[in-house]
Amino acid sequence: MAARKKTGRRHPLASAALLIIGLVAAGGASVAVGSVANAEPAPAAHTQATAAEGEALFRANCASCHGIDAEGTPNGVSLIGVGAASVDFQVMTGRMPMAFQGPQALQRDPQFTQEQSDAMGAYIASLAPGPAVPSEEQLDTSVVDEEGVANGAELFRINCAMCHNVAGAGGALTEGKFAPHLRDIDAAHIYEAMLTGPQNMPVFNDQNISPDEKREIIAYLHYLDENPSVGGFDLGSLGPVSEGLFIWIFGLGGIVAVTVWLTSKPN
Amino acid sequence: MSADQSAHQESHEVVVHDRGAAIVQSDAFENPGLPPHRPRQTDLHPEKADRAERTVVWWFIASMLGAVIAIAAYIMVPIEQGDMASVRFNNLFLGLGIALSLLGIGLGGMHWARQLMSDHELVEERHLTRGSEPNRTRAVEIFKLGDEESGFSRRSLIRNTLIGAVALMPLPAVVLFRDLAPAGNAVDVLTHTMWKAGSRLALDPSGTPIKADDVTIGSAFHVIPAELAEMTHDEGYLDQKALASVLLVRLPLDRLNEQPDRAGWSYDGIVAYSKICTHVGCPVALYEQQTHHLLCPCHQSTFDVTNHAKVVFGPAKRPLPQLPITVDDEGYLVAQHDFTEPIGPSFFERLHYVDEEKHIPLSSAETETRA
């Protein structure tokens, strides 16, 4: 003991520091490798969006699951009547084409350009009438005043918060499905999701939530994006799960550490 | 070793009385005593003691600094009217200052005690629980004297009325606690909602009535009675909403698996179920439009809307009560009458309040017979 003291003791936090350095290095390497693997070149941009081009794209990329005339197969639902709004949402959030069959289509980088997606939307819309992509005017949240934002918040709490969390942080559903978080989502995609009810999300048609109210909900979600949590560090806004974990590890851990320090005999 | 301590030592010996073989054993556990005293570095090296002293002083100075920071933060980072973000920095710096001033005193004091104050071990023997004989005799005397002087035993009328008064004293609390139950007839409040024959189903919170055409397949409507939207907070808006909330969905007719005698309760595939979980009353509103499952976020009870909201998973024991609906001559969805059974979690004698005339029990009797 005495000899060790002379040669210089290892700092008590040295092993913890080493562990953290190791974890950070391993995590960083995995993220770097993952992003390289996902970086596929985007397909060349088409300039004109026509139903004919959309049909060609559909046949090449979607028909294997949704059927050659979008009539549906056991692996994919019929797309007749889903409208251009549904195509824009599914394709431009990267949910379609689906990476693999699972409880829920996962979000990834969009595999098509906006023009290609619009072309496919035009093709699907030409099959049967369905919800159209919302106009610029419907998405213009700058006209929503503070009262509108508050109204949007109330509508969000009544219609959306039970699945998407009151702070839009997302939440779990049954059997591996989940409601995704709603942070920094494009206004058009929020609107289209309400209008078309992708996957297990219910449809909120214009009789249920009017276009003006949809715009207010979007304005509220943008308000959440732009305004930091008043309570400070929000721990992901996941409520008692993350807060409880934090207080058990750091709160109780701190108390245990202080207790050990208090009762130890100094050198 | 004092006489008291030697008596204490003897008590450790187990004496086995003579039953043929006399064995006298000493207690197997021996007091290991204290470890040898080890001087601290601060005891051995005066310069280390000086350094520890400076550390303590710095903690106390840090505490003073914390108090100053807290006052300065309160003045310099005020909460601005209408700027919620200012609350964050006000609280943050105020909290950091107060924490530093408290922790500085605590940590400084502990460091002082650990490093500089005397650290000689000492033993304080635990005294016996039983008092000494003279003390016990004296206590009995005091009680007897008190009894004699007050006449507690002699004046039995006073004693008995006192006991009566003390016994009655907690009763007002019981009466007050009783009022924690809903005002009026508690059972009536629990067993009826605002829904009545002809109540229009309306959007929450605007109160816009809903037409059957509006409810497209895959939609989920969060519904209140149209009359509720006109109520004010003081008239019990929230109480009534907590009872009357309903979820309205339309199922494709081929997915709807209705019991024939309940077919009259739905309208063209549109069904309405109470949103209050039959487990402990959370709002069940996580509707999955492809599986038609309704999930309760509190304890993951899952109800199958295609099968009269029967429980398919979780701790709930009963299906969600169904609101019988139809349309009026203007095409708006209306209730046929109130729920036929009490909504929400079970309570004693719940089955007594099921409307025998109108209720149509589900054939899956297993869930219905449980209260």
Could you describe the 3D structure shown?
The complex is a heterodimer of chains A (267) and B (371). With 267 residues, chain A is mainly alpha-helical. Among the domains of chain A are: 51-127, Cytochrome Bc1 Complex, Chain D, domain 2; 136-230, Orthogonal Bundle (Cytochrome Bc1 Complex, Chain D, domain 2). Chain A has twelve helices and two strands, in the order αααααααααββααα. Chain A has a two-stranded antiparallel sheet with strand order 1-2. The longest helix of chain A is centred in the N-terminal third of the chain and has 25 residues, at 14-38. The radius of gyration of chain A is 25 Å and the shape is globular. Residues 1-6 and 39-48 of chain A have low confidence and may be disordered. Chain B is of the alpha+beta class and 371 residues long. Chain B folds into three domains: 41-115, no CATH class; 146-180, no CATH class; 188-368, Rieske [2Fe-2S] iron-sulphur domain (Rieske Iron-sulfur Protein), CATH 2.102.10.10. Helices cover 35% and strands 11% of the residues of chain B. In chain B, the strands form four sheets. In chain B, strands 3-4-5-6 form a four-stranded antiparallel sheet. In chain B, strands 7-8-9-10 form a four-stranded antiparallel sheet, with no helix packed on it. In chain B, strands 1-2 form a two-stranded antiparallel sheet. The longest helix of chain B has 31 residues, at 46-76. The relative contact order of chain B is 0.07. Chain A: Its EC number is 7.1.1.8. Chain A: InterPro entries: bc1_cytC-su (IPR009152), Cyt_c-like_dom (IPR009056), Cyt_c-like_dom_sf (IPR036909), Cytochrome_c_Oxidase_Subunit (IPR050597). Chain A: Pfam families: Cytochrom_C, Cytochrome_CBB3. Chain A: Keywords: Cell membrane, Electron transport, Heme, Iron, Membrane, Metal-binding, Repeat, Respiratory chain, Translocase, Transmembrane, Transmembrane helix, Transport. Chain A: It is found in: Cell membrane.
